[in-house]
What we know:
196 residues, mainly alpha, 2 domains
Amino acid sequence: MRHGKKVAHLGRTNTHRKAMLANMASSLIEHKRINTTVAKAKALKQFVEPLVTRSKEDTTHNRRVVFRALRNKYAVTELFRIVSEKVGDRPGGYTRIIKLGNRLGDNADMALIELVDFNEVYETDKPKKKKSRRRGAKKVAPAEVEAEVVADAPVAEEAAPEAAAEAPDAEAAPAEESNAEEADEASSSEEENKAE
């Protein structure tokens, strides 16, 4: 039974797992993001975040502790010089795991793990725009929209006699009245269709 044992074994022996995590952490520190499986990414997150926390305080003891875990002096230098400056004010959560889908060969769950402060796409320094919301705005039903259109129709009819009065033609006025009657019939037929 494995009660209370939270170490992800990843199908490897203890020494193989430590060497693999050290190599992956060095690659993550040097390249700022790597692609791997989700299980390895979660194990790497637990491995590398305490090291980044150690790098915030540049002492000989902290450098030796980090070197014992990473086993790569170039990665240690990068961590204590460049990475620690970027994450100096962040209280934790230095990495982000983004799931990418499944790998073609063996259908393994793939993920991208990256250092949060080195991603230009998700910059948090930019001022955020305030979203304006209209509170209390009611949604207009389609029936209400058509009712407004029908209500607008008499306004057009009222404008029509004024235009007829201006025109000396006697034939123009009856034609406009017939158009108004056709509009009334069309609106009543639409209302009947809605009732059904």
